[in-house]
Amino acid sequence: MAEVKKIAVIAGDGIGPEVVAEAVKVLKKTEELFGYKFELEYGLFGGIAIDEKGTPLPQETLEMCQRADAVLLGAVGGPKWDNNPKELRPETGLLGIRKALGLFSNIRPAVVFDCLKDASTLKPEVLEGTDLIVVRELTGGIYFGEKFRREGANGQEAVDTCVYNVQEVERIVRQAFEIAQKRSKRLASVDKANVLETSRLWRETVNRIAPEYPDVELEHVLVDNCAMQLLRRPSSFDVIVTENMFGDILSDEAAMLTGSIGMLSSASLGEGSFGLYEPVHGSAPDIAGQGIANPIATILSVALMFQLTFGYAEAGQVIENAVKSVLDAGHRTGDIAVDKSKAIGTKEMGDLIVAAMSR
Ligand code: NAI
Ligand code: MG
To answer: Per the annotation, does 78 bind a ligand?
Structure first.
């Protein structure tokens, strides 16, 4: 009898509930195929929680997440709440939940599916075989450092400070080494150690820890060079780890290798195996309620949950293979279809993926 895994499900707003419903079908199918047991608990979050509970992150939703082994999140937000005061905005709930759950890294895979590589702006032969993960530090660096204005000799000056302490670097770097160990065992650590003191601390820390992971092949890459290499040789990367601002920029660059935002999954991790999994896209109010959203980003977020939180590597692979085979057979939602008149809906895509799952 497999151990029961608790998953907190917060569907959110707009297309959130539509894409999460398809991901839940995939969870059920995995139980059937592998004998795993998932206990799903549902909670209100985002705009819908503001409407029903008067706050984007109700205490009971947070407690439900804290009890769980992993969280599956759809998306939040929409025009209805855009002009609300800050404490009554869906995005405030997102920041709040990440903070309350101690999530200090954001993980974004960029996988190029062979049959979609013509859809990218890069040459197909450059993209061939690309399957990488960007691990971005989320709670430190220049975004959180002291900021102020002052009068200088030549008028007003603005100051942003970038601070990292050795523990912050160490925990994210260890996490990246551990993820690399579960993948192709190659880690690129990205910094600007030729210029920045925080980057020198970063690099020293990486080098000090590296001998504990002798099976992982480590390379140091300067951030400007990394931006170039991602376009020149994306398939040579496996895991990329970097600080907050560099990761913000590089993860968006890497995302564009793959084409549609409807395909991109993500994870936010803290200490231990707990993680929050969600598609990169938002609540897409422009297509909400029409049943046409692409559920693949959310379905691939479940695959990521299996790999990173539960250690169900084979089940994760089964999901990825099912997505691949459905795409190879030519099925497309509107966002990735060349011929929009042949596009299929959210439910159809989910059903096809579930049907294609096999061991
Ligand atoms: P968005 O990602 O929701 O939509 C951008 C464009 O991509 C839209 O044209 C949308 O139709 C399309 N799109 C997104 N996901 C898709 C999918 N699965 N299938 C097909 N097409 C898809 O970003 P936008 O429009 O900037 O934001 C909309 C709302 O979502 C805002 O309220 C924003 O604050 C919120 N948002 C929430 C996020 C979250 O919950 N983590 C992340 C980003 C935005
Ligand atoms: Mg960004």
So the answer is: yes
Task: State the total domains in the chain.
Answer: 1
Q: Is 229 annotated as a binding residue?
A: no
pLDDT of residue 185: 96
Q: Residue 21, Cα to own-chain centre: how many angstroms?
A: 19
pLDDT given at position 1: 62
Residue 205 domain flag: no
Strands 131-137 and 105-111: antiparallel
H/E element, 198: helix 197-209
| Distance between CA atoms of residues 314 and 1, nearest Å | 18
Residue 228 lies in a domain: no
pLDDT digits (tens, 9 = 90+) for 46-55: 999 999 999 9
For residue 194, being part of any structural domain is answered with no
149: CA distance to ligand 2 center in Å? 25
Q: What is the CATH number of the domain that holds 65?
A: 3.40.718.10
Cite the active site residues.
Answer: 143, 192, 224, 248, 252
The answer, yes or no, to whether any atom of ligand 1 lies below 6 A from the CB of 282, is yes
CA 289 to chain CA centroid, Å, is 24
- Cβ–ligand 1 distance for 284 under 6 Å, the answer yes
Residue length of the chain: 359
> For tokens 């997440």, what's the residue?
65
**Structural domain of 333:** 1-104+263-359
**CB-CB contact of 46 with 56 (8 Å):** yes
- Does residue 274 lie within any of the structural domains? yes
Residue range 203-261, pLDDT digits in tens: 999 999 999 999 999 999 999 999 999 999 999 999 999 999 999 999 989 988 887 78
User: What separation in Å is there between the alpha carbon of 255 and the centre of ligand 2?
Assistant: 10
Q: Give the pLDDT confidence of 63-98 residue by residue, as tens digits.
A: 999 999 999 999 999 999 999 999 999 999 998 998
